[in-house]
Design goal:
This protein is of the alpha/beta class and 376 residues long. It contains 15 helices and twelve strands. The protein has helices at 2-21, 26-32, 57-70, 88-98, 112-121, 152-167, 189-205, 222-234, 245-249, 251-258, 275-278, 289-301, 328-332, 335-349, 365-372, and strands at residues 42-48, 74-80, 103-107, 126-130, 145-150, 179-184, 210-215, 239-243, 261-266, 281-287, 310-314, 321-323. The protein has a six-stranded parallel sheet, with helices on both faces. Helix 8 packs across helix 10 (251-258).
Length: 376
């Protein structure tokens, strides 16, 4: 394993140096700058717990690091660890032991288990983990880990405003029922946070709207995701938001077959779905992993280390979340719906609208969900 890792790391470093240095040596750089080398960029390694090409979390994070590298702020090495979880901790241990990197970047809910023991053993190494958080056995944050999560409730509110407005429109494919759907991966605070925003946004513009929300209890069971989408359509939903990874996105297949509408999540799914499915995708809620990495790393470069030892929640103002407003949104969205989304975004940004969150211990989000529940 270690020999294989060393080979992969060496290759990654070669490609990284070729991409960022253009072959210029340190002495050449000093010569070009009058004998003094420029300030050293941060050396950052990105460990992908899978492979690039997902057109979602991993690619988004990579794009943010590429942007930082293009500005000369970091030197980036990306290592694709592949899908075998048994090897992931070894990768984290190896890049940490190398002592070559200022920051080790990882992401998604699967990684805390593998990062925690390494970070505890190496308190001088800095780590960033996105779309989840790392806590020790006592429930405390580690001072050398910056956890990044996203205000998906704000994103959900914008999606809900659009869905609620469009449900009142004359868009082809809509029925006479005032019902929108939600196919969730898990009954968890994160997914419920999407749903809370979705409900509150929809009801703000369409007070009588009902929401048929159902759980897949999986992020990978695409057959069940499609089945649940079809069940919601049968119950009267004609705009469905899929929030459950590949399983939630599979609801788009049921939408395409029934001639109704789908809304994507996390990335712009009009760009990632097959053509026949992209055609029925009205918009997508965005979770901008790359932008969030830019935000935290630039703060660090400015001397602000407040993100470490805590979890940073990034919303609209920081560019952590958003909504797609071109393509089908602009083509099929009524002027009133588009204006309502823009107004809601501005109101959230300036604090006029505060969206409730499933992470608020004092908020009974299940009561809200039951109030609008449609379907079984």
């Amino acid at each position: 394993m270690k020999k294989l890792f060393a080979l992969l790391l060496a290759l990654a470093l070669v490609f990284s140096f070729a991409a960022c240095g253009g072959g210029t040596t340190e002495s050449e750089a000093e010569s070009e700058s009058g004998g003094e080398s420029e300030a050293t960029a941060l050396n950052v390694v990105y460990l992908v717990n899978g492979n690039l090409g997902d057109k979602s979390f991993f690619d988004s994070a990579e794009s943010g690091l590429v942007a930082l590298e293009s500005e000369g702020l970091i030197t980036k090495t990306t290592i694709e660890m592949g899908p075998d979880e048994a090897t992931w901790q070894s990768y984290v241990e190896e890049v940490t032991a190398s002592g070559e990197y200022d920051i080790v970047v990882v992401g998604t809910w699967q990684m805390p288990t593998y990062v925690l023991p390494v970070a505890e053993a190496n308190p001088d190494q800095k780590y960033i983990i996105f779309d989840t958080e790392v806590l020790d056995a006592d429930g405390n944050y580690l001072p050398n880990i910056a956890s990044i999560q996203y205000n998906q409730n704000d994103m959900g509110y914008l999606v809900g405003v659009f869905a609620g407005m469009m449900e009142l429109s004359e868009l082809e494919g809509l029925n006479d029922e005032n019902i929108i759907g939600f196919v969730g991966g898990m009954d968890s605070p994160v997914i419920c946070d999407f749903l809370v925003g979705y409900i509150e946004g929809a009801r703000s513009v369409n007070p009588d709207v009902m929401v048929d929300w159902r759980w897949i209890n999986s992020y990978v069971d695409t057959a069940l995701g499609k089945e649940i989408g079809a069940a919601e359509i049968q119950a009267g939903a004609d705009i469905i938001w899929g929030c459950g990874g590949n399983a939630g996105s599979a609801a788009v297949e049921a939408c395409a077959e029934a001639g109704v509408w789908f809304i994507g999540v996390d990335s712009d799914q009009e760009l990632t779905l097959a053509e026949e499915y992209a055609a029925v995708t009205l918009t997508s809620g965005l979770k901008n992993c790359g932008t969030s990495l830019e935000y935290v790393i630039k703060q660090y470069l400015e001397g602000n280390e407040s993100a470490w030892g805590t979890c940073v929640y990034l919303g609209l103002a920081e560019g952590g979340v958003g909504i797609v407003t071109d393509k089908n949104f602009a083509t099929y969205g009524t002027a009133e719906a588009q204006e309502a989304v823009a107004a809601a975004e501005e109101a959230i940004r300036n604090g006029e609208i505060v969206v409730n969150s499933a992470f608020d211990a004092d908020f009974d989000y299940y009561a809200l969900m039951d109030e609008v529940k449609s379907g079984s």
